Amino acid sequence: MTTGVDNPFQYLVEPLSPDDPQQCFYNLSKLGDPRYERLPFSIRVLLESAVRNCDEFLIKRSDVENILNWKQTQSQNVEVPFRPARVILQDFTGVPAVVDFAAMRDAVKKLGGDPEQINPVCPADLVIDHSIQVDFHRKSDSLQKNQDLEFDRNKERFQFLKWGSKAFRNMRIIPPGSGIVHQVNLEYLARVVFNHDGFFYPDSLVGTDSHTTMIDGLGVLGWGVGGIEAEAVMLGQPISMVLPEVVGYRLTGTADKLITSTDIVLTVTKHLRQVGVVGKFVEFFGPGVAQLSIADRATIANMCPEYGATAAFFPVDHVSIQYLEQTGRGAETLAFVTKYLQAVAMFRDYNNSAQTPDFTQVVELDLNTVVPCCSGPKRPQDKIPVSDMKKDFEGCLQAKQGFKGFQVSPACSGASIPFQFNSTEYALQHGSVVIAAITSCTNTSNPSVMLGAGLLAKKAVECGLSVKPYIKTSLSPGSGVVTYYLKESGVLDYLAQLGFDVVGYGCMTCIGNSGPLPEPVVEAITQGDLVAAGVLSGNRNFEGRVHPNVQANYLASPPLVIAYAIAGTVRIDFDKEPLAVNAEGKEIFLRDIWPTREETQAIEKTFVIPSMFKEVYEKIEKVNERWNSLEAPSEKLYTWDPNSTYIKSPPFFDGLTSQPQPPRSIESAYVLLNLGDSVTTDHISPAGNIARTSAAARYLTDKGLNPRHFNSYGSRRGNDAVMARGTFANIRLFNKFLNKPGPQTIHLPTGDTLDVFDAAERYRLAGLPLVVLAGKEYGSGSSRDWAAKGPFLLGIKAVIAESYERIHRSNLVGMGVIPLEFLQGDTADSLGLTGRERYSITIPEKLSPRMIVDVKLDTGKVFQVRMRYDTDVELAYFHHGGILNYMIRKMSQN
Question: Is the pTM of this model over 0.90?
Fold first, then answer.
């Protein structure tokens, strides 16, 4: 933060209160520029950061002018710097970040610099929430058993993180068992307005998880970035970004009393996917927003990656202040947050149309048009009205293999496979529910849908309904507060009676930590080649993500998760068919037990109170006894254990010289993979369980481990040898070379079909560079830095795609993998590319952002592509071989 005389905008600094000159802020209203009050509120946050941090070096007066002139510059690909107020990490992405920091300290020392220069400059919070799995469920002691197993599996990782919390200044670790990072951020970590030694400025952040956008619902501007970018921010670098367009999303009308916030967000997700908001900000306004709670707004903002925007911003209003009070923030905080935001014209009245700023475009949703819905079976944007679910699923069964198809022959669509579970015979069909999980940051932060699920469970039990015992049911709250109000309101026991016992506090089923299914269930699915179903209150349902044996996965509100669990199938029309028949022979329909908004709001008002939040969060950093007693090294340089299979010094900086080498063209590269559209980071990045037949499994077996101790890819993100072997190892990856899904490719020189890693290793040993061909939206999905690190380690020098997801493109840039984009109208097919050619890519000495370069094939064909280095700063990273190399060289010279 710059506040001294070197800042050319020092004249804007004034006291927040005339009677207290020690409390100051940059008063942007004193700019005297009428453009300021026409800016979208989200752009005002970018402007304030640029003004406050202006030093005429990293951030210049011209940057301030470009942001202030947003109405013109938004469409001109203008680069601006943004220095967020803080960084947030979760442990899956946080462990490799801390590993990189430790390795960077070693590299700086080798280059003769001070290793302690590698240290977070801005506050960094790391929440351990991605390690726990649903190994135990449907038992009162499931929570304790899962947490114990989490610690046993991850002790080495946790020790390393605890070392990091001691070795690095300005880094706070929230222990395991506390909750999901985004909910903890919303309820506890968010400042809304920073008070830094009496200097006030807006809270803002970037996070190493794409759903960081959830915090936008509270009026805190934040979004997900790659771990690589986050590390640079932690080291004091501003993010270089293209000034975004801002889509104004106007909400009007009133939602029906039977509608949940999940229905609203799935409707918004589909709508904004259709509008096209990739790379843009979305800012919500209109009288409909005033009716939404902060939890509702956060649910909508959480799904921002699913509709493709960078951020989904709800400016602060009186409801935001009420939420801060409800969650236990003090009166002094409420006072200065309100006063500061009003002083800088960042406090919103959603019923006041005169406050509406200029937007790039405006789209509208009437909340009265929202109907109960789910999304699936393979993508979050594929919304289905609940009334159409049965028909839609049956259509998907026979449709051609794709996002909405499984290509099951009509003769097999009615298959029924009997099996025994706990000495009772059951049968599975296509569409049978085998996983039902109330999970994920999307919904567990929202008391209305969580209490709605509890009320539905209560009514279901009272009607004599139950859930079949083979269905893997689970409840993983986003924080201890959820359990607190579910218990106090009296619904927790009813949830448990239906099998929805609390199994852990963390991001579980939604990220693939669903744990094993019962063997008889797996055998029945395999025997019948069944399209089994999972229903979860999450935000991700990509193929192979939730569980490898569950092909159809639907996102739904927590009450609907329970409803489908009771029904036991997604092939049901709730309007016409009963959920079940109870012991008395009475048909019970969903409408008989569905709670209204009024019912849930009444309970929420009574039981979701400030004292709960205070009690839970006052002890959050000390309540985990196993964490407290965990011993960790205290040295400033980490002592790497060569025998560790969890934490390993990465090879990213091997041979790093003090000066960068000139860029080289890529000569005669082979295509490792020939891919189509919507290849997600779930397809690229190692995730979920480590398959026993995989290259990673062979590596771990060679290290003396048996499959019981493999753990998950996420837990081994600190070991590059495991992660490289798990790159492109998703069983649903569709490689055109093979014309079928699977984690394999063809080694073109020999024609051998191999695991992707094994093929890449053959190329590496022969000294042959690699490229990847891809279609649209390459890298969509979570912000996984290993989706860039893994390809780098496989020897992939460039990706040629039709388009990129924002975060993944940035991560490729950060790792020194060149993102190339076909020119408008060109595709691999239109150019006649088979992928079996050899590719030479000319890299000129003088580069400019988004420049066009030639690709020459060994057939003699030449075509052009665009280098997706969008800013001069990204080109600087390219010349250094990546952002981390750039930072090491910079730090070693200080």
Answer: no
